[in-house]
Amino acid sequence: SAVISQKPSRDICQRGTSLTIQCQVDSQVTMMFWYRQQPGQSLTLIATANQGSEATYESGFVIDKFPISRPNLTFSTLTVSNMSPEDSSIYLCSVTRGVTSSSYEQYFGPGTRLTVT
Amino acid sequence: AQSVSQHNHHVILSEAASLELGCNYSYGGTVNLFWYVQYPGQHLQLLLKYFSGDPLVKGIKGFEAEFIKSKFSFNLRKPSVQWSDTAEYFCAVTTTSGTYKYIFGTGTRLKVLA
C-alpha cells in the first residue's frame, strides 16, 4: 500500500486567485495522478503527473489552468489557477506502483476540499 | 469512449438485508475492475479488484463481486449489511493497455439503518 498526504485539506479562496495543492507519498511510486470530484459527481482524471517531464492532461483540462509539477518520485503539486466558483471541488491525488498487473491498483489521498467564492 | 454506469445512486437498507450494487462498463477489450469505498470523512479505499481468473472475487468486510464478461458487468454483493457499511461505493475500470487510467462510475450512496 501507500500512505498519501495532501495539503491543504481544505481551503476557501476568492475567484481569480490560485491555489497549489501538495501531494506527498511515503515511498517511491511510478505513477501519480490528479483527480477532481465535483459535488454529487464521480471522480474525473485531470492529468497524470510525470516525473521529470510535463504532465499528461485529459481532454478538457489544460496546463495553463492546472499546472502540475512532479520533481521526484514521492511528491507532486497541482495548481488551480485563476479560480472561479466552478472550480469548487475535491481534488484528489492518487498513486500506483510498479509495472506488474498489481500496479493497476491505485491508492488515494484524503483529498483537498476547495471552495471558491 | 469508455464509460462506467452505476444504476443505483442512493440505496437505503436495513441491517442484515442483502446488498447488490450494479456496475456496467462499456469497453470491448480486456479490463481490470475495481470497487472502491469511501466511508464518511475518510478517503477512498480499495474494496476488491478483478484482474483475471475466477470471476467471483472476494474483498474485505464480506464483500464480493462477480465479473460477467458477456454482460459487461461487475456487480458488488454482500449477503448481510451492517450499519458500518454506510458509505459511498464507486466502481472503476481500467484497460490492460498500460495507461493506468481509471474510469469511475458515478457512485452509489448506501445508507444502512440500524
Brief characterization of the structure:
With about 120 residues, chain A is mostly beta strands.
Write the layout of secondary structure elements.
The complex is a heterodimer of chains A (117) and B (114).
Chain A: E1 4-7, E2 10-13, E3 19-25, E4 31-37, E5 43-49, E6 56-57, E7 68-72, E8 75-80, E9 89-96, E10 107-108, E11 112-116
Chain B: E1 3-5, E2 10-14, E3 19-21, E4 24-26, E5 31-38, E6 45-50, E7 56-58, E8 64-68, E9 73-78, E10 87-95, E11 103-104, E12 108-113
Parallel strand pairs in B: 2-12
Antiparallel strand pairs in B: 1-4, 3-9, 5-6, 5-10, 7-8, 8-9, 10-11, 10-12
Rg result of chain B: 14 Å
* Fraction in beta strands of chain A: over 45%
Quaternary: heterodimer
Largest sheet of chain B: 6 strands, mixed
Chain pair forming the biggest interface: A-B, 20 and 21 residues
Question: Could you characterize what this model shows?
Answer:
The complex is a heterodimer of chains A (117) and B (114). Chain A has strands at residues 4-7, 10-13, 19-25, 31-37, 43-49, 56-57, 68-72, 75-80, 89-96, 107-108, 112-116. In chain A, strands 2, 4, 5, 6, 9, 10 and 11 form a seven-stranded mixed sheet that branches. Chain A has a four-stranded antiparallel sheet with strand order 1-3-8-7, with no helix packed on it. Chain A is mainly beta. Chain A is built from no helices and eleven strands. The model of chain A has no long low-confidence stretch (mean pLDDT 91). Chain B is an all-beta fold. Chain B is globular. The chains are: A mainly beta (117), B mainly beta (114).
Entry keywords:
heterodimer; A: 117 residues; mainly beta; seven-stranded mixed β-sheet; four-stranded antiparallel β-sheet; globular; B: 114 residues; six-stranded mixed β-sheet; 0% helix
